[in-house]
Amino acid sequence: MWTLKSWQGRLLPHPLPPGERLRSYATWCNAVEGNTTFYATPARSTVESWARQTAPDFRLVVKLPRSITHEGRLTGVDEEVRSFLETIEPLGPRAHALWIQLPGSFAPTDLGTLAGFLHRLPRSHRYAVEVRHRAFFDDARSARLLEGVLAGVGAEWVPFDTTTLFRSPPTSDSEREAWAKKPRMPLRSVALTDRPIVRYLGRDDTASTIEGWRHWVGTVTGWLREGRSPTVFIHTPDNADAPTLARRFHDDVRVLLPEVEPLPEPMPTEPLTLF
């Protein structure tokens, strides 16, 4: 999520070799969703490049490949998991959590499969699970059962907040595409661990996006006061200004909690000159 074309030359320097784009992004934000790993396990040399471009405290939330979560549905995939874990090993502490995004068809009746899968994973990593079946949100018993499975291995439940997107009809092509593809997820803001992860999807209109995240500013501030270390990802349908918005969210939290450290100054998009 650090190579978006619309960022090149506007938020990130251009031209910039692919092996330097994450380094530039990391001056904007101190965390990123490793979404590309969902489509295929990368080459180890690629992962080594990610590690070289980021500081040890940079947070990559790395998604497990769909061959494990969607095609294999967590069954008979031990060899694929082993290979994936070996590949991402160069990240070291940068692998903040391994993100297990499950398909919408993964229901409460599948919780036994999830429990078995999580218990087979090495404890050397943190795990975060994103579910999309409505029963986990609409049925209190199903939610409690999932929380119990996750608590048994210290895993987090990742909320994907799309309530702002679906609050009113789409007004742009990217919003219409998001309406067709993104899940209509109810709001959930309960942290299970000391490292909660939030995914928030706003609108292409900046004011609407900011208004929609007010709840999260208060929630994240509360988590910080409790001693937790949350990670928040800010999206819009076109993501054109996502890094700028992420910094704005960080600043909004700092208004309520000034002791939170500011983010670094972004790398300039143009080379510095003397005149």
TrEMBL record:
InterPro entries, sorted: DUF72 (IPR002763), UPF0759_sf (IPR036520)
Protein's UniProt name: DUF72 domain-containing protein
Protein source organism: Streptosporangium oxazolinicum
Highest taxon of source: Bacteria
